[in-house]
Write a structure and sequence with these properties.
The complex is a heterodimer of chains A (371) and B (388).
Chain A lengths: L4 H21 L1 H21 L6 E7 L4 H11 L4 E5 L2 H9 L5 E5 L3 H6 L4 E7 L4 H22 L6 E7 L7 H31 L3 H6 L4 H30 L7 H26 L2 H18 L11 H7 L3 H14 L7 H26 L5
Parallel strand pairs in A: 1-2, 1-3
Antiparallel strand pairs in A: 3-4
Chain B lengths: L12 H29 L2 H21 L6 E7 L4 H12 L3 E5 L2 H9 L5 E5 L3 H6 L4 E7 L4 H20 L9 E7 L7 H4 L1 H26 L3 H6 L4 H29 L9 H27 L2 H18 L11 H7 L3 H14 L6 H28 L1
Classes of the chains: A alpha/beta (371), B alpha/beta (388).
Chain lengths: 371, 388
Amino acid sequence: MYQEPAYTLRVIWACMKKDIKSALTERVFTIIGIFVPLNVLILLSLFVLSGGQAPTAVVMHDTGPYAQQFYDAMSHAHSFRLQIASASDAQNLISTGKIVAVVTIPADFDARIRQNQPVQVGVQINNLNTDFTNDIRRAIPLSITSFYAKAFPNLVTITPREFDLQPQDTDYIPYLTVSILVIGLVLAGILQSGTAVAREYENETIKELLLSPARSWAVLLGKMLGALVLSIASVIVVLCVLIFVIGVWPVHWGEVIGFTLLALLIFIAFGTLLGTLLKSRQPVIALSFGTAIPLFFLSGAFGPISFGTPAIQVIAQMFPIYYAIVLQQHAFHNFMLNTYGIGTNALILGVYALALLVVASIILRRSTLAH
Amino acid sequence: MSVQFTTNVGIGSKPARLPARILAFFHAVWVILRKDIRVLLRQPVNIAATILPPLAFLLVNALGAAAVGRNPVALVTLDKGIKGQQMAQIIHNADVFRITDATPARAHALLNNVAVAAIITIPSDFTQRVNAHENAPIDVIVNNLNLDFTNDIRRSVPDAITQYYQAQGEASPIKVTMLETNLRHRDVDFFQYNVLPTILLLLMISGLINGGLSTAREWESRTVKELLLSPVSRGAIITGKVLAGFVITFMLGTLVLLLGYALGWTQPQGIYWLSALLTIALVSLFSAGLGVAIGAALRRVQVVIAVSINVAIYLFFLAGGIGVLAFEPTWLQNIAAFVPLTYGRHALEQAVFYSASDQFVRDMLVLALAAAVAIVLGIFSMRRGITS
C-alpha cells in the first residue's frame, strides 16, 4: 500500500521523539551511557600514561666524567625514567615494585674506561614480563653504543643514522586516544540503540509497533535517529576532552565530523540489530562491552595491523572498527595506516552501514514476541 | 491438677531452639542460593556475556603475542664485503626484528605501504669504512607514526650494533658490558602475563553483575515482597544473595584458570594451587558483596549492569590493568595501593608464575578485609532497601 511521504516522515519523527523521551525518563542509565565512552577514554589513557619508559634507579658508585656521560646516554635512550639512588634505596625500590630495574655503575668505571679495560655495568631487572624486560635489555646496549659514539667516536664507528618518514613523532597518547575515540563511538552507538530496541520487547510495546500500518524501516529509522541524538551527546563530550584537555587537534576537521557520523551510523545499526535479536537489555549491555573491548584490541588501536601477526591482520579487516580507526587517524594525524585510501575505507564503512540497516530491518519485520 | 504446657520457657528449652534456628537459617540460605543460580542458568546469554569479554581478550592476546616487541623491517644489504655480510647476519640473528630482505626499491614500496616499520640499509662502502676506522653509519628510515614502536626500532638497531662488536670478543673496542641479574627466576611471556589480570577482570565483572542482578531483580520483579513476608531472616536473604554471586564467580574464575593450565599458560605447582584458588575465592567474595550492595542501592537491573561494568573496569585499571604498576605515575601507584585487586593480582602472580608466597599474608588479609567490608556494605544496602 502506498504511504504518503509525509506520513512516513511523521512516523520517523514520532519514533525518534518517543525514544528520546523514554531515555530521558531513565536519567541515571542515560547519563551513565553518555559518559561511558569518556570513562573508557580516561581508563585506557591511564594504561599508556607512562609512555613505556621503565622506571629505573641508577646507583653511581663512580661520579667521574665518563660515568656521568654514561648516565646521560641512558637518559637519552627513550627507554628510562631515571633516578639516582643509593644501593640500599634502590634495592628497597625494586623489591617494593616502585621501579623495574637497577643499574649499578661500578666505582672503577672511569679508571677502566681510560685504561681500555673491560668494565661491567650491573643491571638488575624485575623481569615480570618479557615485553618491558626485553626493552630494558635492548636499551642498555643502546646506551652503551651512544656513550661510545660520543666519548670515543674513533673507536666505535658504526652508528645508526636515522631518517624519519613523518615530519614529527606522534606521541603514544595522542595516537592511542584517537583509536579510543572509535571505541567510544562503538559503545555509544550500540548502547543507545540496542537498549532502545530491547526495551520495546521487554515492555511488549513492539507488538503495537509491528501491528501498526507504519513501515518497519520507518520505525527502525526513527529509533536509530533517536539513538543518534543521544550518541552525539556522548561523542561531543569525548571530542571535547580529546581536543581541549588532552590537546589532540585534528588536521582535517571535516573528516572528523564526517567519519564520526558514519561510524556512529554503523554501530547504531549494529546495536539495533543486537537489540532485535536479543530482545532484552541485559545481554545487550553486557555484550556491547564484551564485544567492543576485544575488537578494539584486535583492530589496530595501538599501531598499524600490518605490524601484527597475519592472523590479526585477517581478523581485523573483517570488522568495521579497523576501518573507522584508519579514517580517524588520518583525520587527526594525517597519516594512512593502510593502502586502501580514504575513499575505499569510507566506502567499506558505507557498505557495512547499509548491510546492517538492511539486515536489522529484515530481522525486525520477521521478529515475533512470545506471549 | 493443672498441666502446664510450656513451649518457650524453662531451663531446657533454649539449647533445643538454637540448632533449629541455625538449621532454618542455613536452609533458607541454601534455598535462596539455589534459586538464584537456577535463574542465572536459565539465561545462558547473560553467562555468555559475562565470560565473553575476558575470553575474547585472551584470544586477542594470544593471536597478537608473536608480534610483541618485534617490528617488521626491510633489510637492504648493499655491501658485499665481509663486514657488511657479518652485520646483516647479526641483524638476522638478533631476533629483535621480523626481517624482509629487499632491494632498495622494494623496501621503499614496503615502507610506503605500511608493511614495514623501517628500512635498515647497510651501505655499499660499509666494509671499506669499518676497515679504515671511518664513520660507518647504518641508515634507518623509520615510519615514526607512533612513539611506541618507533622507540623499539631506535633501541633495536644499536642492540644489533653492540652484538656485532661483542662478536669480536677481546678485539672489540666496546669494553662496557652488561651484567644482568633477574629478580625472578623465569621470564614470563607477555600474553601469559596478561592472563591473570584478565581472570581478575572476569571475577569483578561476574561478581558485580551476578550479585547485583540477583538483588536488583527482586525489586524490579517485586518478588522482594514475598521474601520480606516470609519467615526467613533477613540475614539469610543477604547471605544467600552474596553466596549465589560468589559461587558463580568462583566457578567461572576457576574454569578460566584451568583453561589456562590446559593451554600451558598458567601452571601453578603443588600447594600454590591452593593459594591461587584462595585468592580467586576472596576476590569473588569481594566482588559479589559489592555487587549485592550496588544491586540493593540501585534496584534497577539496567542501571545495575551499567554501573557494575563501569565499577569493574575502573577497579581493574586503577589496579594497573594489564600493565605493570611500576610504569605508572606515582599518583596512580598510590591509588592502586588502596585497590584490593592490586593485592589479588600480586598474590596470583606469585602463586602461578613464581611458585612463591612473597607477602602472601598481607595480600590475603587485605582481600579478606575488602570482602568483609563489601559484605557489610551489601548488608547495609539491603537493609536500607528493605526498610524503604
